[in-house]
Structure formats: C-alpha cells, structure tokens
Design a protein that fits this description.
With about 325 residues, the protein is mainly alpha-helical. Helices cover about 65% and strands about 0% of the residues. The chain is globular, with a radius of gyration of 22 Å. It binds benzoyl coenzyme A.
C-alpha cells in the first residue's frame, strides 16, 4: 500500500538528543535568531540551523508534490470540458500548476536536495502531498468547485507564505499567488454560470460537488493547532505566519458569503454566525478521515501515485534523449 506517512525529512534524531555544538555554531545560531526576530529574510547562502533547513525542505517539497499531483484530477477533465473556452482555461490552469511545482522544486533545491531525491521520496511514498488530491473528480462541476474551494483554500494558506522568512520560498509564492487568484475566479465563474443559467440538473450537480468537496477543503489547512506538531516551531521561525485554525476560520467566513451569492448550501447544519466571536461556528471535522487519507488510504491515493510513477517511467526515454543531445553538443563545442 502506498503511504504518505513515512517522511522523515525535518525531524529531530529519533533518540531526541541534540547534537553538541561549537562556540562558533552557537554564535551563528544567535545571529540567525536575531535576524528572524528582526523579520529579516534568510537567503540560500546564509547560515541556517539544520532543523530550519529540513523543516523548509519538508514543507516546500510537499508543496511542490501537491502542485504536480494536483494536475491529475483536473487534467482528467481537459478532454471533456463542455466548451472550447472552458477547455482553454482548464488547459492553462493545469499548465500553471505544473509551473508552480517547478518554481517550488527549484526553491527546495536551494536547500541542498536534488530534484531526483525529492521525486524519489514522492514515488516511494515517503513524502506527503496535499490530502485534497486524493478525492475523485466525478463531474464537470467538480472542476469549478476545485477552483472555488481548493484554490480558494490554497490562496488563504499561501498569501501569508509570501512573507515566509526563507526568501527563495517567499519569492516563488508571490508568483504562485497571482496565478492562484485567477484559478479561484475561473472556478467560481464557472459555477456561477451553471447556477444562474443552468438546467435544474446542472444546479443539482453543482450542489453535489460542493457537498463532496466542502469538508476535504477545510481539512486542507492541516490538523487543529493543538494537534499540529510542526506549527509552534514553524511559527517561531516565520515559516508559517498564521496558524492552521486561524486560516481555516478565515476561509469558512469568506466561503459562507460566496456560497450565498452562488446559491448553494454548505453541507454543515452547525454552520452559523457567532456574534460574540464575529466569526462563523462550524461543525466538527472528521479528523479520522484526514489522518486516514494522509496515511495513504484515501479514495484515490493509489491511483494518483500510480499515475505519477507511470509518467516518470514513461518519460525515461525523453530524459535520456535530452542528456544524449546535451552531451553531443558539448563534445562538438569542445572539438571546435
Ligand atoms: N495534506 O504539523 P502540521 C494547491 C501533515 S497545493 C497532507 O500542521 P505543517 C493546489 C503535515 O505535513 C496545496 N498532509 O504540519 C495545487 C505533517 O506531517 P509531517 C498544498 C498534511 O507543515 C494544484 C502533519 O500533517 N499547499 O492548493 O506545519 C491545483 C501535521 O501537520 C496536510 C501547501 O503545501 C494536508 N492537507 O502544516 C490546485 C502549502 N496538512 O510532514 C491547488 C504549504 C498537514 O510532519 N504548506 N499535513 O509528517 C503548509 O502551509 C503546511 O505544510 C500545512 C501543514 C499547513 C499544509
């Protein structure tokens, strides 16, 4: 069985012992902490603690894998988009996701891991990718709903990462977030067209897609703060700027208003405005489902990973040909 739960990147040694550090290293650590406290950005060439480097590598590579695996459920609908306009938009969106993956792999490479190592971790089930892409896209309305809810959740989570303390990640995120807002709007626009001009069947299809994607979308922000082992340290280092629960709450509050305009019902009978908190209360999330999905046992985990591994194996001849071509040119240059 494929699992996403074996990633060891970014973890302290198993025996919990801290390595002995020299006086020089302690000075470097103090300087690093002072820079983080002052809100400075850290560049690839700067000294950084090993745990900071590994935490970033874990998060950025997981993020890159999510973009690449995220192409699969949407790519599945390119040939079946209802109009040429929608097909062109979806093609552009899926291509953007591939680009996001490449920016992020490049940012992760600055931390000392090769692309081959990261892809190997994905293909062997050691590295995680976002839980959300282990759910199936059953109808055309799923594509609009992914744009609205999944890209909407991604923007909510990723805008604060534009201020991440690690500069190469922050720079990649600025470009990604610009494109994500187009993705969110095209999804919402597509659903709005179906809800305002569609047949009763099309409207029901939108509601059904929202019913299936709502809970997995709010799980995307990760476990509750008190069950999030990485949050405290990542917040201290300025890798994460806003907590999982705070982002989830902001997303729910925004989505409630958007759902009203769309004319769909969010599938949570406990969702209601709380005047005291000035935020919406919402029902209990089924965290056992979340842990099961990230543990490798979601509806499409095997299919998604199988598709990535197959694409990698089928593309071997392209990589070999590109290397042979580059080698030939190098030899010709040297001979000239
Ligand atoms: N799915 O301590 P926590 C997109 C893991 S791309 C799977 O809170 P952290 C898009 C977590 O890794 C969306 N695993 O962790 C693409 C940790 O396990 P490990 C991707 C999850 O890192 C194409 C454990 O649970 N976005 O939207 O502080 C088309 C405990 O969690 C998830 C990013 O990657 C999850 N949802 O916080 C359309 C954004 N949540 O590694 C759209 C960057 C948690 O300790 N990443 N886990 O074994 C982040 O902001 C953070 O990594 C997270 C998790 C908020 C996701």
């Amino acid at each position: 069985m494929y699992t996403q739960a074996m990633d060891t990147m970014g973890k302290e040694p198993a025996d919990g012992q801290k390595p002995v550090r020299s006086a020089d290293e302690m000075r470097l650590q103090e300087r690093f902490d002072a820079r983080i406290d002052a809100g400075d950005f850290i560049e690839a060439k700067d000294w950084m603690p090993e745990h900071y480097r590994k935490t970033l590598l874990r998060q950025i590579s997981q993020h890159a894998h999510s973009e690449i695996v995220g192409m699969l459920p949407e790519g599945n609908w390119i040939t079946r988009a209802p109009t040429l306009k929608r097909k062109a938009i979806l093609l552009a969106k899926v291509q953007d996701e591939g680009g996001h993956g490449l920016y992020l792999y490049a940012a992760a490479e600055t931390l000392g891991s090769s692309r081959d190592q990261m892809l190997d971790a994905l293909h062997t089930g050691k590295a995680k990718y976002s839980s959300i892409f282990n759910y199936p896209t059953l109808t055309w309305a799923d594509i609009g709903t992914i744009g609205w809810l999944v890209d909407g959740a991604a923007i909510m989570n990723q805008v604060p990462i534009c201020r991440c303390s690690y500069a190469p990640y922050a720079r990649a995120m600025i470009r990604i977030c610009r494109e994500e807002s187009f993705h969110q709007r095209q999804g919402y626009g597509s659903l709005l067209t179906m809800m305002q001009h569609g047949t009763p069947e099309q409207k029901a299809m939108v509601q059904d897609a929202v019913d299936r994607w709502w809970w997995p979308s709010i799980m995307m922000f990760g476990p509750p703060d008190d069950q999030s082992p990485n949050s405290a340290q990542s917040m201290r280092w300025g890798i994460k700027r806003v907590s999982n629960d705070e982002l989830r709450q902001k997303f729910v509050d925004a989505a409630v208003e958007q759902a009203k305009v769309l004319g769909v019902t969010l599938p949570d009978p406990e969702l209601k405005w709380n005047d005291e908190r000035q935020a919406h209360d919402f029902g209990a999330i089924d965290w056992s489902e979340f842990w099961r999905v990230i543990g490798g046992d979601g509806p499409c985990n095997r299919e998604r990973l199988g598709a990535r591994v197959k694409a990698w194996e089928d593309g071997a001849w392209v990589r070999e040909a590109a290397l042979a071509h580059a080698g030939k040119h190098q030899t010709m240059k040297e001979a000239a």
